[in-house]
Amino acid sequence: MTGETTVRTAVRIHGRSAQRQAVRALLDGLSTHSGHLLVTGEPGLGRTALLQWAARSFRAGPVLDLGPGPDQGARGSAEDLLGTLRAAAGEAPVLACVDDAHLWDARARAALGRAAGLPHTAGRVGLLLSAATDRAVDPEFAHLPAVRLDPLTPSQAGALLDDVTDGAADPAVREELLAEAEGNPALLLALVHRLSPAELRGHRPLPRPLADAGTLAEVAGEALTGLSAHARDLLLTVAAAVRASDGPDVDAGPVLDAVRRLRPASAPSLEPLPAPLALADERLRFHGPLVRRTVHATAAPDRRRAAHRALADVLEAGGHPLPGLLHRSWSLTGPAPEPALADRLAAVAADGTVPASYRLRAAAYARAAELTADGPSRAERYTAAAEHALLAGRPDRARPLLAAARGCAAPDGVRGRAELVRGLTELRDGPVGDAHQSLLLAASLLAADAPADAATAALAAADAAWAAGDLPACLATLVPDPPQSHQHQPPAPRHTDTAHHPARPVDAAVPGDAGRPPPDPVRDHRVGMRALLEGRLDRAAEPLGQVVEGARTDHRPEGLLRSASAALLLGDVEAARRAGARALAAARQLGSDALVPRALEYLAYAELRAGRHPQARAHAEEGLRTALRTGQRNTAAHHRAVLALAASIEEEPDVVARHVTAALTTARRHGLAQAATLAEWAAARADLGRGRPLDAADRLGLLVLPGPGRGHFAVWRLAVPCFVEASVLAGRHEDTGAVLTDFADWAAFGADPQAAAQLARCHALLAPPDRADALYRQALARHEEAGGDFERARTALLYGKWLRRRRRPREAPGRLGTALAGFDRCGAGVWAAQARGELRALGAASHGGDAGAPTRLTRLTPQQLRIARHVAEGATNREVALTLAVSIRTVDYHLRKVFAALGVRSRLELARVVEQAEHAGPAEKTGAQP
Q: Which residues fall within 8 angstroms of residue 386, CB to CB, at 6 or more apart?
């Protein structure tokens, strides 16, 4: 290293909006009452930065810093705390900040706890404490309301890194820094500071290990002071054991056995348990991962090797060969190759009968590669490690493994496998154009020796072109395979058990009917998908139907995902739901974290196509969480688009805007035309639901009208009914002719069960009065065949509006009431408000309208009624949450339901409705119905 990179101060705090909101609520509340809050988090996560932000933000009165730690002055400050706070408060509120309160002695902590528990009648006092979670929370602080700092998400950490380096980091270096920091901002900054400018820009190799003992000790070393030799050995052994564990905790029995081998002259015990450790159900874990890493890295090398050797002896004797071999390899001295041990490690990692997670197999392959001298074998083992890291949901770990494999000479088959993993990684978390090229290269390299893997790569390349909205590339990728490519069985790859390798499925040939090739789901999917894109449904139905039917006997998540995709292409949403649900269960059972977000994506799309928006939202919310956790930003963008579409029918414009913005940010950066089109459609549908047809027509025109900016080739037609409705309401009938013919062809195609009814509705909107009535009735009849509450209710609403404007008041209320009931059933609050408005214009009373106010609260559940009453009294959502001992998110959810059920749009309206009901008599007060 030739120098250090100057790390400039971050312009803003990254990824702490929820925590800052909680602190802001404390500060704002000091205008009327005292309050207290505990900020917790592992070392390096930004507790000090948050307290400093609070001190800078508080301008209503003085700020007291009651640090710095457990010296005599701090103890005196704590003992005099009550008097000091009362004296400082005066007429203005006072904020007292106590950083690292866990470092104060027991007497001082007790004083802090007592101070937080007193009402402070003498003045308005805010007490803001921070405590590290590398140990159990002190009992003196257990009663305090707390906000926890978690590691930053990859996108948040990336924003911080770009902020402090002005975006100067080389992309590969950037990925490795983010992976090594694991979301800890202080560690990330320390890693950047350690690099020279040339290393940061990728001009020189990075130091190894990147997070060395000195860097880790700088961030978390204080947590390890004052420990006995026995405690250090116990901590080291647990830290070493977790390296070869399938989770963050380990069985206490083998750990104690290993400590006995380390310290044969003593009797190891868990009493007293060192502060960084927790024990539950006879399993040991660290309170935080950074301290665990620091314990392992800062230990003396000979002691660290001895701990691994002791664990290897214990685990191998106990019948755990893979973790035992890993520990054996880590007990070696020096970097010299060990071919025999490397071969044993690779062989056990490839043995499907040995129980182990994908993460553990990836670690075993990577360690085997490090101990291998032969270049091609080394490349193959690094590639296998990358495959398993991707299946474990760690693309950040797969990328450096692929880079290591690329540095070794390897045959085409191994290079093809590496390109396949690289392409799949980019498909889920990178520019899909790059993914397309990598997957095409993989298909070319694998064609000769592994045709089935080549077909898988080609289908994945088509998926990348599909995601990019590149129809010519998609069609070119889906060309039929040469006949001879299906006549060979691919050889079983070395060091890989194909039955336990979902990333590289191998479909064995099965005898079929004479004169026809054996079943091949990958081939059938490609043939059917191409025929569909060419508009030949008659030629697409049979091969795609075979893929759907194959799910009946397929128990692998990949095959089930393929079946769900084929079912969605055919418009069979029920088959897609069944296959998606089975794929989700299979992925979870196998521990394939990478496939869980994809299964949830197919489930969410199927529910959305079926008109079941609440179910789609539930699947997409879980899918978004898992996609972000497993580093799949592209999959996360698709889930955000689904969430935006689901929220677009509810009274949640802010939620729609948030998900649309996040989806478009990733979509534009990575070329995701499908996600971008869905997100833009969601924004336009929200405008339409809120009575802004001009805005909706402008947005949708860009998506559906012919031109270079038209939306995704497989999605834009789904937005045509919204465009026609918005254009008619905005007085732009002439814009609809160009797209309605295309939509008629789409409806005749038969891949969308709602399209025929939607087409009739569009014709009704554009038809003269003498024809519109029959077309609306025809649309409703077709909705009865297709199902789907939301689309049926939209047609009923438009028909009811038309009847009212044609001065047919006897018929209109029935249609509008049907629409209102349908919107209520699917949670479409913003559309239900339109139906209620139409009924009010007719002078009719809806079951959620203004008439009959004393009966309206009877439609709320008991929990909703309690929340409604608190809000009507002026409480904020946070105050309601604290009063009812629920989360703010739960209050938000129920309050949305209250607004939809009562037909109100503001807290003021809600207060008026509750006041009317409360004054109506005692019957109303007990009228909530579950």
A: 362, 397, 398, 399, 401, 402, 405, 418, 421
pLDDT score recorded for residue 491:
32
Quick one: 110 exposed, middle or buried, by C-beta within 10 A (0-12, 13-18, 19+)? middle
Phi, psi of 207 (to 5 degrees): -70, 150
Q: Pairing state of beta strands 146-149 and 35-41?
A: parallel
Q: How far is CA 197 from CA 4, 365, 400, in A?
A: 7, 33, 20
Number of C-beta neighbours around residue 482 at 10 A: 10
Query: Are 762 and 736 within 8 A, CB to CB?
Result: yes
Question: Do 464 and 436 contact (CB within 8 A), yes or no?
Answer: yes
Q: Token pair for residue 906? A: 């503001």
- DSSP of 817-830, one letter per residue? HHHHHHHHHHT-HH
If 0-12 CB within 10 Å is exposed, 13-18 middle and 19+ buried, where does residue 882 land?
middle
Beta strand 94-98 with 63-65 is: parallel
* pLDDT for position 454: 94
pLDDT at 490: 31
pLDDT of residue 11: 54
User: For the purposes of burial, counting CB atoms within 10 Å of the CB of 83, is it exposed (0-12), middle (13-18) or buried (19 or more)?
Assistant: exposed
148 sits in which H/E element? strand 146-149
Please choose, from the candidates 575, 654, 603, the residue with its C-alpha nearest in 3D space to the C-alpha of residue 830.
654
Are the CB atoms for 691 and 683 separated by under 8 Å? no
Neighbour count for residue 353 (Cβ, 10 Å): 8
Rg of the chain (C-alpha set): 31
Q: Residue ranges of the chain with pLDDT lower than 50? A: 1-2, 70-79, 482-516, 846-854, 921-930
Please check whether residue 150 is in contact with residue 45, taking contact to mean a CB–CB distance below 8 angstroms: yes
Q: Which element (helix H / strand E) includes 106? A: helix 106-117
Residues 98 and 129 sit within 8 Å (Cβ to Cβ): yes
